Amino acid sequence: MSALSPRETRLSRGETSSVSPLTYPGGKTLAAQYDTGPMPDRTDLAPPLQSRAAMAHRLLLVDDETPILFAMANYFRAKGYVVDAAREREEAEALLTNVAYAAIILDLRMTAVHGADGLEVVVYARERCPSARIVVLTAYGSPAAEAEARARGADAFLHKPQPLADLAQLLEALLGKHES
Question: To the nearest whole percent, how much of the chain has pLDDT over 70?
Answer without folding.
Answer: 64
